[in-house]
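Hi there,

I know you've been waiting on this one. I reran it after we fixed the sequence typo, so this is the corrected version. Both the input and the resulting structure follow.
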Amino acid sequence: MTARPRVLFICTANAARSQMAEGYLKAKYGDRFEVFSAGFQPAGQVSPRAIQAMKEIGIDISGHQPKSIDTFNGVPLDLAVTLCDNARAVCPVVPSAKKTIHHGFPDPHLTPSADTEIIEGYRSVRDAICTWLDETFSKGLPL
């Protein structure tokens, strides 16, 4: 049996977008990919709204913890994906990854207004991430 390709999703805090991407890819394509996420300035916890948004589609990321990109120093990766412009600017190439790509999504935490509209922002970003992951990874590793 050959090893599954390793994919790392990167965002600044590793609290929402990268956690949602990790959770979705693991849930949907975990038999084909080994999936991780990390951040340059990891938050203390995964966003409760990201957890809620993922739970609404049947994916539990409540056990996830934000991790530092340093955790993956020297870990061989097949693909690193930056999901926010800040991560792309800080690390346009991940040295231990065969390839680094960028696909930015808005920060759902920055959704203005009331709580009900903020969770809608998380749902919108979640749906965009899931759609992109399906389009990009359903046929294999995008190399």
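Quick highlight: The chain has a mean pLDDT of 91.

Best,
R. S.
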